[in-house]
Amino acid sequence: MISQSAVYGVSVAVTAVAFLVFLGWLSRIPSSHRRYCYPVVAVVGFSTVMSALMAAGLFSLGGTQLTVPGILDDFVAYTVLWVVAVALAGESRRMLAVAAAIPAIQVIGFNGGAIVGGVVGLAGFAAVVLGHVLMAYLLLGPIWRRAADVPDRQRLLHWKARNLLLFLIGMLVVSSLLSVAGVFDSFVIAVIGEYMGLLIRIGFAGFFFANVEAIAVDRDDPARLGSPSFTDETGASGSD
């Protein structure tokens, strides 16, 4: 049977190739839009390093299938990708902080629950499910209303990005809970986890790079990622 380290090794190879492809792709993207690509491609690069550490069997948590690199990889990936998706709606820094906090709590809750177990474990797993529900509510409600103030092409990009992440991360949540319930053995857990991780990181990066020019950027003063553009604190348009 193929070992788990071999699965991680394949993940390293795939993410490393993807990282190099995205670095080359950056040169074809207008300089005014590259700043939006940096955090996304950084997620792929960081995942390459963390997967390499996992393949080497370093920093594993005794008695579990968890590793420190794997936890850090998830922590960085999901917080960054959610923030990018929410920033496309022209949201405030406060909402960006919320978008970063929810996946951070989910990662901590899931991994803490898997390690400790018992009541703490149940609370951690509940945080994962409730966190995804809360994120969906914010994206489909307040954040979507805020997105009405950004140009149509950018609003469409936000809509596609949020739907992609909601679906992929939702599937990851379901598979993670099934793995904790003992439905899969350790090898299947590793394969599913790496496969879903690649889909989320590389899939989102490819989608984002292909559509990044839909983001509105002022030629004289480029909008900063996550800064409300042409909006006031109430979400109303600030320009005609």
Write a brief structural summary.
This is Rhodopsin. InterPro entries: Arc/bac/fun_rhodopsins. The protein has a single domain (4-214), classed as Up-down Bundle (Rhopdopsin 7-helix transmembrane proteins).
Order of helices and strands: HHHHHHHH
Regarding quaternary structure, what we see is single chain
CATH class: Mainly Alpha
- CATH homologous superfamily descriptor: Rhodopsin 7-helix transmembrane proteins
Largest sheet: none
The structure class reads mainly alpha
Shape: globular
The total strand number stands at 0
Total DSSP helices: 8
Portion in beta strands: under 5%
Low-confidence stretches: 219-240
Number of domains: 1
Task: Describe the model.
With 240 residues, the chain is an all-alpha fold. It has one domain: Rhopdopsin 7-helix transmembrane proteins. The protein contains eight helices and no strands. Helix 2 runs antiparallel to helix 8, helix 4 runs antiparallel to helix 5 and helix 5 runs antiparallel to helix 7. It is globular, with a radius of gyration of 19 Å. InterPro entries: Arc/bac/fun_rhodopsins. It is found in: Membrane. Belongs to the archaeal/bacterial/fungal opsin family. This is Rhodopsin. It is a multi-pass membrane protein.
